[in-house]
């Protein structure tokens, strides 16, 4: 069976006719309309998005068979998954977050940093979160400059630590811990003015 990828999360009910707020984790939020039935992680329940429209930071969606507010409220918080083989192939330098989670992270010098714990986006670009064997997690911009190599076949990402993180590493070496660095750059930097 193909790996399941979380593509959306159902939020609170919207109105009285069974619509729900739907947060999607796809590049095109409306793409969830084209994946067919979406399932819960355990596969016990299946849902089909009949229609959707864009709102501020989410979709307002109609789920087939959900016709009133009470039914919509019972779905709040459900994550919806699709089989990996139903998703489009990625372009070069494009990755599904699920493919990155769990990869080993090491510096360009080959020093192990830990494992990729998550990819976050707080609005200003993707952030890669690395969990070291001990100590605080490391948050770095997921850009070509900081993550020059993603080797899915080899199960690793190569990290070019920014100077401020290396400086923090030296000052934290007494505690044997790297302090987290926070940044908000776009995943692929541009040379355009």
Automatic annotation (TrEMBL):
A family per Pfam: RimM
Biased composition (Acidic residues): 164-178
Database matches in InterPro entries: PRC_barrel-like_sf (IPR011033), PRC_RimM (IPR056792), RimM (IPR011961), RimM_N (IPR002676), RimM_N_sf (IPR036976), Transl_B-barrel_sf (IPR009000)
Domain called Ribosome maturation factor RimM PRC barrel: residue spans: 98-164
Cross-referenced Gene3D superfamilies: PRC-barrel domain, RimM
Subunit record text: Binds ribosomal protein uS19.
Entry domain remark: The PRC barrel domain binds ribosomal protein uS19.
Family: Belongs to the RimM family.
Official protein name in the record: Ribosome maturation factor RimM
Species of origin: Bradyrhizobium oligotrophicum S58
Gene behind the chain: rimM
